[in-house]
Specification:
This protein is an alpha/beta fold. The protein contains 15 helices and 7 strands. Its EC number is 2.4.2.18.
Amino acid sequence: MKQFIKMVENNQHLLFDEMLQASTLMFQDETALHDIQAFLIALAKKGETAHEVAALATVMKSFALEVAAPPARYMDNCGTGGDGVNSFNISTTAAFVMAGAGAKIAKHGNRKISSAAGSSDVLEALGIHTDLSVDETVELLNTHGIAFLYAPNVHPKLKRIGQVRRQIGKPTIFNLVGPLTNPVTLDTQFTGINRPEFTMEYAAVMKMIGRDRGIVVCGAGGMDEASLAGQNDFVLVDHEDLIPFSLTPEDVGLKSAPLEAIRGGNADENAVIMRTILSGKQDAYFDTVVFNATIGLFAYGLVNRVKDGVDLAIDTILTGKALEKLDAVVAYSEARKKQEVIK
């Protein structure tokens, strides 16, 4: 491991095969935690490359549990996190909207590491348990078309690395890799990053690991979501093509709003915000979810134009379909928990 640390500390980019070796070492119990920490910090300081991200994603997914989901077109809209904006859980809320509109959502997520409330934290606050088995996750996908995969449950090898990430307390390459390691086979993906210079590279990684369609966004104000605060930069992955484009909220008929208008809080506070949005209260929180669900629906292929996705997303919320998805997953989770108690 020390040779790879030295290479990266000397500002040397690792080749794909070199990063495969380094990544495999990170997942070995024999590798010292302080070496993993030094390697991750050095990578972040140097700046990760597409090949390094793709290699780590390949190794991490190879260690994941198998999730034999029924054949379907699945999508993940997990972002990389770490943007420091302290917004509410936008992608988690948008996932219910997209599922309500007919997309099959297998959303990867974790607890807070570099944010106030991670997706798993807010799901538990809503009453959705993160300790569902793989079989229960598959049943949720089959029955309701949406499920949440808690990263430590499906990536058992992440436990030691999670300790290191919490000690570092800042985004690392694992933030970039997380959305790319969903154990469910994905056809399409919508992912936000907070590094404008890496948007095209991240789209290239998506293509390298086999997504036939996807969208990467770096939002206005440095968000890892589509933002109401100005121009958002996207790259569309369409088979072999990588197509950059930009959008403001006004371009799709939504009102602009500053980042301060969508501040979140702890898990309980964000759960209240989510339910308020899905109940139809229209404000900046609502429009932010609509904007992101719109991009996701376009990436999934449910609409042919981004603007058409706005009408579909709004209708899905106002007709109660998105909230129905949330309530269905909560009810399923609670029923499984009661069964465990009885047993």
